[in-house]
Amino acid sequence: MADVLDTRQFRPSTEAALMSLAVTVCYYAAGRLGLMGRLVVEGVVATPIWPPTGVAVAALLLLGARVWPGIALGSFLVIASLTTPGPTTVVTVVSNTVAPLCAFLLLRRAGFRRDMARLRDGLSLVFLGGFGAMLISATAGVGLQVAKGSLDKSEFWPVWLAWWVGDTMGVLLVAPLLLVLAGPAGRFRVRRWKEAAFLGLTTLVLMPMAVLSQMSMLFLVFPLLIWAALRFQLAGSMLCALFASVLTTFEATSGRGAFLHLTDVEIMAKLQAFNGSAALTALLLASVITEQRATRRSVRRACQELAEVLEHLAAGEPSPGPPGTAESRAAPPGGHRDP
Question: What is the C-alpha separation between 164 and 141, in angstroms, rounded?
Answer without folding.
Answer: 10
